[in-house]
Amino acid sequence: MALQAYVNYLSISLPAQAESTFEYIRAYVSFCVQKSNNWLAFSKALMYRTKNEVDRSKTMDRSLAQGQALIDQFREAQSATFMEKIDVVFACNYPMFWGVQHELAKLYNKLGVYMSAYELLHQVGIHEEAIRCLFKAGRHTQAVEAADELMRTSTT
Question: What is the C-alpha to C-alpha distance for residues 62 and 29, in angstroms, rounded to an integer?
């Protein structure tokens, strides 16, 4: 847990594009992935690895596959028992299912895979960002229709 807290500190405090930041985080995350005996701590380490590796062309595919694997873990009922998860849920600061989907959608959006980002954001219910993805994908009429529908159904 202490290593993951340190990785979180590094990812926030150091410049994101610096090679040294990538190497620091990669070393700590690799150690956490190899030595973790808890499902949640392992998944959080994979999430850090996913965010860290998405900017490099060599590791981009693995990063997106790991992000999708994290989402798929939530769908599997036998991934871990409640008692296994509750031991470290607050220490790991692991997001809910929709948070993991939102993180993967942000990665897709960053890479220009706008329709995949739209699908994830639409499933989660973050409609404003989903509409932005439609505009970026060049589907302007569909985005305008979705925005009109959102304004009609909005209670405010």
Answer: 15
